[in-house]
Amino acid sequence: MGLKDCHNFDDFRNLAKKKLPSPIFHYIDGGADDETTLKRNTEAFNQCDLVPNILASVGKPDLSTTIFGKKIDMPIFLSPCAMQRLYHHDGDKASARAAEKFGTFYSMSTMANNTIEEISNISGGPKLFQLYVHKDQSITDDLIDRCKRSGFNGMCLTVDTLVAGNRERDHRTGFTTPPKLTLQSLMSFASHPSWVFNYLAHGKFKLANVATKTGKGTNIAKSVIEYINEQYDPSMNWKDAEYCIKRWNGPFALKGVMSVDDAKRAIDIGCTAIMVSNHGGRQLDGSRSPFDQIKAISDAVGDKLEIILDGGVRRGTHVLKALAAGAKACSFGKIFLFSLAAGGQQGVEHLLKNMHDEINRNMILMGCKSLKELNSSKLIYRN
Q: How many domains does the chain have?
């Protein structure tokens, strides 16, 4: 099986599973506790149906939309995901180049293995930075200021990770960053010599954007869970978010908004967007899925915010349903990480082409010439 055989989520997942050591694969694949919310994120899309119109003379539909002040060529982009070098040795560089090629956003995590400046130098495409509020405010300020200097187009503040979720798969597999050999993981690493070679041959693992500020997660073996719990500020509040918005002074989203009240408050503190997200089902298990909440949030805030659905997207039809329910764009993480593991930049490009083709084909089948025509009349909920 190769990239040419990857047509959907399961194909990319299966190829990634062959290429990655078990602890790394399960870090992508898993969620919190019983993984109920992880499953629900995708299942929620099946609770409603698209309603097409016929004989609409669609021709070539316009898939473009504008978010964070930038026009993008299709209404989906790469979610910010940490430590991409674990999945392929080119990591964020591969993701950024693939996103630029398809005219959409690349998003950088605070916990990336490449620096803000490195990515800015290799990609002229639209770029979003994902910020965490650290206990040491100088780290937060430094990240914001460097993104300004490096020409990033937007920023999102992740607000649902005050402490790390209970990811039981990681406890079982012994996942740490940087990876370290344990009796539990030794056989899995030994059976993936290509991954081990590429990991060791491409420089020391580090959290590049915070390496000059803290040694945590960089100089010693440290689990990602321990890093989050030690470094992120669990007392973060609305004033902290407003401070970040003012310091950035540009297009800004809160990532992790799930309630109508919080969406309204995001407007009050100066946000231009929100990412409706439960962190891919990796934090609060038993919470609602993003798609469950899109319509209520859209009805409440209308055009006052750009609404981005983050989580559970596997198909072009999922994107169409999200837009019909009130989102302006979608972002995805798991499937793009699997595609990165499956084939580096070429893998991400293959995924983005698949998604572009699915969205384009289904827009024609829906009888929609532009994304603006995807509205509540195109969606019926079964209950």
A: 1
Number of helices (H), then strands (E), belonging to the chain: the values are: 15, 12
Element (DSSP H or E) covering residue 46: none
270-320: per-residue pLDDT in tens?
999 999 999 998 989 999 999 999 999 999 998 899 999 999 999 999 999
- Residues 350, 355, 357: CA angle, nearest 5 degrees: 95
- Is there a domain that residue 337 lies in? yes
- Beta-carbon neighbour count of residue 233 at 10 Å? 15
Q: 253 and 331 in contact (C-beta within 8 Å)?
A: no
pLDDT 10s digits, 368-383? 999 999 999 999 999 7
Structural domain for 325, as ranges: 3-368
Given a contact cutoff of 8 angstroms between Cβ atoms, the answer to whether 318 and 309 are in contact is no
The pLDDT tens digits for 34-70 are: 999 999 999 999 999 999 998 888 889 999 999 999 9
37 in Cβ contact with 284 (< 8 Å): yes
Is the model's pLDDT at 222 over the cut of 90? Answer: no
Position 189 in a domain = yes
Q: Is 279 a catalytic residue?
A: yes
Helix%, strand%, coil% for the chain, nearest 5: 50, 15, 40
Helix axes 9-19, 22-29, angle to 10 degrees: 150
CATH of the domain at 318: 3.20.20.70
DSSP string for residues in 78-95: EPP-S-GGGT-TTHHHHH
20-31 pLDDT per residue, tens: 998 899 999 999
User: Which of 192, 279, 318, 356 is an active site residue?
Assistant: 279
> Which residue type, as a one-letter code, is found at position 305?
L
Q: Is residue 377 part of a domain?
A: no
How many other CB atoms are there within 10 angstroms of residue 35's CB atom?
17
Given this model, what pLDDT does residue 192 score? 82
**Closest by alpha carbon to 165, among 325, 277, 245, 316?**
277
Q: Scan for tokens 């990634």, then name that residue.
A: 16
User: CB under 8 Å to 381, separation ≥6 — which residues?
Assistant: 47, 48
Residue 375 lies in a domain: no
Backbone angles phi, psi at 263, to 5 degrees: -65, -45
Neighbours of 247 (CB within 10 A): 14
Cα 256 off chain centre by: 11
Cβ pair 96, 119 in contact under 8 A: yes
**Mean pLDDT to the nearest integer, 113-133:** 95
